[in-house]
Design goal:
Elements: H1 2-28, E1 34-37, H2 39-45, H3 47-84, H4 90-115, H5 120-146, E2 151-154, H6 170-176, H7 182-205, H8 208-246
Parallel strand pairs: 1-2
Length: about 270
């Protein structure tokens, strides 16, 4: 018997510990803080990004010029072959045609290695942009750590359906990079003020006094509408009765019917005559 009681108490204590742990976890659990940033806005005003972008554009221009020069050589050789194919020997013509095929293949190979995915362009662009992107990421991370944000979304790469502008840390990250942000901060504050006004208006509309006032107005409107319906119905009824009365002609020659005599009870006997 004592063993059973001890087991029951043990199970009760274990359940209490589990319940306490569960509620303690719920109470002390922290809701993650999330912010968002627009990295494209930072890049547009970051001088180092613009310099890196110009370097990449210059490389692309050089590569395109090289491809264009190869094309010109191919076209010139094609014209030469068309003009001299009749005066060249078979070996000379064969050599020129092989050279034409080689130049075409070289140009196609150059374009493929340069501009295809994972080619020279991707490699060079990544190497040039990597230090710039690292600085932008470090500025964003510094703001997030300082203000205790757990996650930061980038609107430029991860579209967001809606985000409260007070959680936009773009301008703060730009401050870390020493960029001009007065106009961005002005637009941000304007958006925040607009949302706060909308929230304040919604709270006023949902306040108990305002709800009671709206319900009272709705009741008064419904009562007035019902009274109007009743009055309209009474008016229509009176008009219909008046029209019915005027529509029946009265005959002055017609006499009223005589009142019928009362019916005597045959079961009653006449009293004896004296």
């Amino acid at each position: 018997m004592m063993n059973i009681l001890w087991k029951m108490r043990y199970h009760q204590a274990f359940v209490c510990v589990l319940v306490g742990f569960f509620y303690g976890s719920v109470l002390f659990a922290q809701v993650p803080k999330v912010a968002f940033v627009n990295s494209n806005t930072i890049r547009e005003r970051f001088p180092e990004y613009q310099t890196a972008k110009q370097r990449i554009e210059s490389l692309v221009a050089d590569w395109k010029k090289q491809a264009d020069d190869q094309l010109l050589q191919i076209q010139a050789l094609e014209i030469e072959i068309q003009k001299k194919r009749l005066i060249w020997s078979e070996s000379e013509l064969r050599d020129r045609e092989q050279l034409l095929q080689k130049r075409r293949a070289d140009r196609e190979e150059f374009i493929r290695k340069t501009f295809n995915s994972g080619g020279t362009f991707d490699t060079e662009a990544a190497n040039i942009m990597r230090p710039v992107e690292a600085k932008i990421a470090a500025a964003i991370q510094e703001v997030a750590i300082t203000e205790n944000y757990d996650y930061v979304w980038d609107k430029s790469t991860q579209p967001i359906l809606y985000a409260n502008p007070r959680y936009d840390i773009t301008a703060k990250a730009m401050d870390k990079l020493g960029l001009f942000t007065d106009d961005i901060k002005a637009k941000l504050n304007e958006a925040i003020d607009k949302i706060e006004r909308e929230i304040s208006k919604a709270r006023q509309e949902l306040s108990p006094s305002n709800i009671r006032r709206r319900i009272s107005k709705m009741a008064d409107d419904a009562k007035k509408a019902a009274e109007d319906i009743v009055k309209e119905g009474e008016k229509e009824f009176k008009d219909a009765a008046k029209d019915l009365k005027l529509g029946q002609p009265q005959d002055s020659t017609k006499k009223p019917l005589p009142t019928p005599a009362p019916v005597q009870d045959s079961t009653k006997k006449d009293p004896p005559k004296k």
